[in-house]
Amino acid sequence: MPFRLNPKNRAFLPFLCLLALVFSGCREGKTPEKPAAPETFARPPGCRGCHQEVLLDPSHDLACTDCHRGNPEGAKMEQAHAGLIARPAHPEQMRQACGGCHARQVAEAAASPHFTARNEVNAVRAVFGAKASLASLAEIPTHAQIASPLDLVDDLLRRRCLRCHVYSSGDGYSETVRGTGCAACHLAYANGKMSSHAFSRSPADSQCLHCHYGNFVGADYYGRFEHDFNLEYRTPYRAEAQQSRPYGVEFHQLAPDIHQQKGLACIDCHSGAELMGRHGGDREKEKKVTCLTCHGWRKGQPLPLSNLQTEADRLVLTTRLTGKKLVVPRPVHPAHRQYEKKAHCTVCHSQWSFNDQGAHLLRTEQPDDAAWARLAVQGSSEVEAQLNTPAPDGPSQRDKITGAPGRGLWLKGYELRRWERPLIGPGPDGRLHIFRPILDLHLSMLGPDKKVIFDNVGVEPARQRYLPYTPHTVGKAGAFFRERLQPNLPPETKP
Fold this sequence. Notes:
Layout lengths: L12 H12 L39 H5 L8 H4 L13 H4 L1 H12 L2 H4 L1 H10 L21 H13 L21 H4 L2 E2 L2 E2 L10 H5 L14 E3 L24 E3 L4 H5 L3 H4 L2 H5 L14 H5 L12 E4 L2 E5 L6 E3 L6 H6 L5 H5 L3 E12 L16 H8 L7 E3 L6 E3 L1 E12 L2 E4 L5 E5 L4 E6 L5 E7 L8 E3 L11 H5 L10
Parallel strand pairs: 8-14
Antiparallel strand pairs: 1-2, 3-4, 5-6, 6-7, 8-11, 9-10, 12-13, 13-16, 14-15
């Protein structure tokens, strides 16, 4: 029987409908909505899905795995990075990674003095008793026990000194971090990280200064003289206790080299042919560049560098980075003809030179924090970190070639750091040169119980501590150049 609503109760119909809506939980006839699922984004396949910021130069627009290996199909980082070569340009990897396309350049670079540092390494080892020369810094022996001064200097080289060379990615300061191997020069770094993945055939000076900082040739080209480590003995006195240290130690700003002021970059004189082997073409199979390479050139002679040309019988240099053209001046003062074979050009033309005397280095396993508090600035982030916060397992320092840690810390200080009148004396070629105390080294070692094992071991005779070098602080000779020459010339050569 069909249901019929009593006409008397029709007035209650709206009220009954309202109750039905309330108790049924409905809202305007809609069912409750389910929470929306989180929106997901699919990662693009391959390395560029995560490393989208990497931009390559046209010559190296390759698949990432061509150099870095790894698994481009991996969905997770652990899978994608399986077999990854993080530093393919490292000396241990560069033949495989870079040599496939640049076999000749890699072979030449690997054997070059600039890459192996053999000249510097052998010079230091020889004065501490080494009888044989090494072909590369990688051949410096490691020693489980330090039993001789030569063992001690080997440990010094591997763990304190060689952070500037291509097996290491540099120190921890903002402008000392760089790539390894080929990338040390050809990949740009700034502010402590790689700023571009584009390989440059012509590195800017900032790349050179990642290694050539401190009181070494390169920094002087920009007029930089590093402070002493002890704040109280920095000259001129600096009251500020904390300053920016992009290269580890603050520096005084002195006069830059005249070539730098004119716009020449390092590679305008020091080409790849000189630094990394003979891959710059037949015209750049030249011997080491000297002042007279350009300033002593005469009409009719072959052009010594590829960025030199003649215009109206004048020698013109075109800078490699900016394309700026500069006329190379000829030496016209009569003193050049008079002294050219008696003195190196920098004897008269250097404005200042480095004179860091008495470099003392102590290897210790128990550094006395109070004794070294005034020398907390060490020019080594690794050392400074442990002086400020001692390591719980004792001090240690990494081998800069293998990366392996080793017990003990090398601490450093100087007797005297000054820029003064250059030290002048006769060099191996018989001409006057500027000298600096490159080998004025004094090494000491304390055992775990603070027992003295080596005490102030240095180079004897003392004259061997000084070596000739070429300061990159060139400027006008000035009115008193003869005051540098006359006291140092042999009597029979004086006019």
